[in-house]
Every structure is written in structure tokens, then in C-alpha cells.
Amino acid sequence: MQINRKHFASAILISMLSMGLLSACHTVEGVGKDIESAGDSIKDTAQDCHDDQEGNCP
What is the largest CA-CA distance in the chain? Predict the structure, then answer.
């Protein structure tokens, strides 16, 4: 059985692109969680300042 070089190269390229896309999903998910965490922190600080708690307002 002879392997066609063009098909082999295409299969390798598709495999590499698929792996890159799958790993990017986890990266984007992580960035989303970081942004959400930062937003929650800002919201909590704003709420503390609104509640007039000492030491929490800049």
C-alpha cells in the first residue's frame, strides 16, 4: 500500500490545525473566567463603597 504524499501532508496539516483549535478553546475559556473574576471584584468594591464601609474605598 502506497501512501500519497499529498494526502499525507493534508492529513498532518488538518491534525495540527485541529489540535490548535482545541487548545485555543481552553485558552479563551480561561480568559473569559479571568475577565469575569475582575468584573466581580470591581462590582464588589463598588458595592462596598456604596454601603459606606470604611477602608474599602480608594
Answer: 78
